[in-house]
Amino acid sequence: MPDPFLLLRLSAISLLFLTSLVDSLTLSSDIAALKAFKASINPATIQPFACLGSWNFSTDPCANPRRVHFTCGVNCDDTPAAGPSRVTQITLDPAGYSGTLSPEVGKLTRLTVLDLSNNYFFGPIPSSLSSLSNLQTLVLHSNSFSGAVPASLCNLKSLQSLDLSRNSLSGPLPRYLSSLIGLRRLDLSFNRLTGSLPRLPPNLLELALKANSLSGSLYKSSFDGLTQLEVVELSDNSLSGTVEGWFFLLQSLQQVDLANNTLARVEIWSPGKFNGDLVAVDLGFNRIEGNIPANFSAYPSLSSLSLRYNRLRGPIPWEFGKKESLKRLFLDGNYLNGTPPQGLFSSETSVSGSLGDNCLQSCPVSSQLCLKSQKPLSICRQAYGGKPRS
Known about the structure:
By secondary structure, the protein is an alpha/beta fold. It has one domain (about 90-385): Leucine-rich repeat, LRR (right-handed beta-alpha superhelix) (Alpha-Beta Horseshoe), CATH 3.80.10.10. It is about 10% helix and about 20% strand. It contains four helices and 25 strands. It has helices at about 5-25, 30-40, 220-225, 375-385, and strands at about 75, 85-90, 100, 115, 120-125, 135-140, 145, 160-165, 170, 185, 190-195, 205-210, 215, 230-235, 240-245, 255, 260-265, 280, 290, 305, 310-315, 330, 335-340, 350-355, 360. The strands form three sheets. A 13-stranded mixed β-sheet has the order 1-2-4-6-8-10-12-14-16-18-20-22-24, with no helix packed on it. An eight-stranded parallel β-sheet has the order 3-5-7-9-11-13-15-17, with no helix packed on it. A four-stranded parallel β-sheet has the order 19-21-23-25. The protein is elongated, with a radius of gyration of 29 Å.
């Protein structure tokens, strides 16, 4: 008959063995980094029902099932090949956390996702994030981070999505952004960034830098090799000079928003065989002079065009009236003259938008395109140095 005391001792040894397994489930440096992360946040902003409220280090962060502690906010590798588990994701809920981002996060070297969006984090973005060589997604939007965009972030070769929008970041963009060879989406909108565009990451799909204080012209060197770029959002900056013809010939370009800058001129070249994907262009509220480029109509998929409130003159190109893909056209607030193309008013084209506040003649009052009245004759005569030509 088995010795009951022997069984009791074996059970105790087994329990100690299992306890040691649980204690060593997550790498100790990862646990220390998570503790530092939580400690850098004002405890008064950590509600019991929030993700961080469940971070109780009396249990292992990577232990399963997570019924009481670490119920959300942290993911781990489920089946580590060898050794202890590692933290792979930190995705916080938008629960109003306020605090700084601890530099200790840089020790979570298996991290692939760091998402702290829609909270109240402040202070600088720590340069130690450059140690996260596996990081694919960095989302810090809608916080109060300040200071420069760390140049060290350019070391993150695995990064695919970088969203630092709606913070208080300032200074120029990092010079070596182009070294982010895996980056597909970059959003730094609604900050206080200055200077001109550096050379951009070569595999970028989406570029959003609207509502900053960027200046200078759009240089071809910034966009060299970007054959996959589909979306460019640079509105509400201080960009100036000429938008040259090469820009609209970027191979995959579909949507362009350059509104609310100080651009003075735009060149439009006819698209080639591989440059016909352009769908929407917004160049409104700039200082663009000259005639409307008729070559806009040569882009087969162009559906929406805004050139409103610039300094354009002359007639609306007749080609616009024959363009079946065009559905939205905003040309109001210029000094356009002559008679608008009749095709814009056809029931078959269904073009919406505005041609008002110009110097046009015979804009049909029955059309919603002409609802905004034209400029007074005296202003039009002054703009053209006499009676505007029809």
